[in-house]
Amino acid sequence: MIRVLVAEDQSAVRAGLVLILGSAPDIEVVGEAADGEQAVELARRLRPDLVLMDVQMPRLDGVSATRRVVAEQLADVLVLTTFDLDEYVFGALRAGAAGFLLKNTEAKDLITAVRTVAAGEGIVAPAVTRRLIAEFAAKPVRESAADPAVLGDLTRREREVLSCLGEGLSNAAIAVRLDMAEATVKTHVSRLLGKLGLRSRVQAAVLAQELGI
């Protein structure tokens, strides 16, 4: 079972999310939080596999709550919001979120996203992905806080995989692009995340974009 904590301040929306997730035979909602502080507290106590995190919440916003949950390695975080503004997208992904979806996502796609993140793959809504790509494409000389020196420990193959992550490719697509087994791709992703000190492949994708590789 995939154990999920739902953090959403609007009770009606939260109830709807719980209902949708509860309809999946392999997903169990183990807790509900009405604000960011409660989300962090429950994540510490319940240790869910994944936190479905709203961005705009009282007491502590979703981006800050995500940063705490990820920093303490309490769970993976899938951010869900009505907003697709860059400040929320970049804020959530840099905080370590493993995925970012808009609230107009279909129920079946939400369930698929939870399963995808729980399986160790990042996911970003197509509309958000387009904005991310457009953002980096429009600012090729964008100032980055990332230091290219962090790539020094990566092998040539790991750099190639990182570059593919920056394009938003799935493990299957990377396997085809680089002519290797999907299991080998997963191994490379795991190793490069460890070397770079990153929590998720989505963070790796953002880093790849920032470094222009």
Model description:
The structure is a single chain. The chain is of the alpha/beta class and 213 residues long. Helices cover 53% and strands 14% of the residues. The chain has ten helices and six strands; from the N terminus they run βαβαβαβαβαβααααα. Helix 1 (11-22) links the parallel strand 1 (2-7) and strand 2. 38% of the residues are buried.
Topology:
Elements: E1 2-7, H1 11-22, E2 27-33, H2 36-46, E3 50-54, H3 62-71, E4 76-81, H4 86-94, E5 99-102, H5 107-118, E6 123-124, H6 126-138, H7 156-166, H8 171-178, H9 182-196, H10 201-211
Parallel strand pairs: 1-2, 1-3, 3-4, 4-5, 5-6
Question: What tags apply to this protein structure?
Answer:
single chain; 213 residues; alpha/beta; six-stranded parallel beta sheet; 10 helices; globular; transcription regulation; WalR-like; DNA-binding
How do you describe this structure in short?
This protein is α/β, with parallel strands linked by helices. Helix content is 53%, strand content 14%.
How many β strands by DSSP?
A: 6
Count of DSSP-assigned helices: 10
**Strand share of the residues?**
5-15%
**What characteristic shape results from the CA principal axes?**
globular
Low-confidence stretches: 140-144
Q: If you average the pLDDT, what whole number results?
A: 84
Determine the fraction of residues in helical runs and give it as a percent range.
Answer: 40-55%
The separation of the N and C termini measures 37 Å
Q: If you compute it from the alpha carbons, what radius of gyration comes out, rounded to the nearest whole angstrom?
A: 17 Å
* Biggest sheet overview: 6 strands, parallel
* Class based on secondary structure composition and strand pairing: alpha/beta
Please give the order of strands in the largest beta sheet: 2-1-3-4-5-6
SSE run: EHEHEHEHEHEHHHHH
InterPro entries: CheY-like_superfamily, NreC/VraR/RcsB-like_REC, Sig_transdc_resp-reg_C-effctor, Sig_transdc_resp-reg_receiver, Tscrpt_reg_LuxR_C, WalR-like
Pfam families: GerE (PF00196), Response_reg (PF00072)
Modified residues (4-aspartylphosphate): 54
Protein name: Response regulator transcription factor
